[in-house]
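Section 3.1: Structural characterization of target chains.
Under the original work plan, the team committed to producing a structural model for every single-chain target entering the pipeline before any wet-lab resources were allocated. The record below documents one such target. The sequence was received from the expression subgroup and is listed exactly as submitted; it comprises 119 residues.
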Amino acid sequence: MKTALLAVAKALALDFEKILAAEGFKIFKAEDGQELVDLAREIKPDVIILEKKLPVLDGLSAVLLLKNSQETRHIPIVAVCEEKCNQEEEAQDAGCDAYLTRPLKADKIRQILKELVAR
């Protein structure tokens, strides 16, 4: 079974959980950036979905830690941002493999998941 690790706001998590469950993913959730890093190292998910604004350790710092680690650098990471934010370049520089803006579109999420997990 494919696994996904989510570190997003609760309102967003519900949207992602519906889509991920429909696509056959087992879902793990992290409440903050440090928990995200720890869980990623433990479970080695097939994909990570996160927001930049996370408590304890922000999302992009978590991405840098994961992408600089031999054991987790292969895990695809999707960054999620507000509709009008201009953080795509920053997310890519940190090592994110894909980028989504709100409002989220289910078809776009499915397309990105298929592309990233198929690698």
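Helices lie at 10-22, 33-43, 59-67, 88-94, 106-117.
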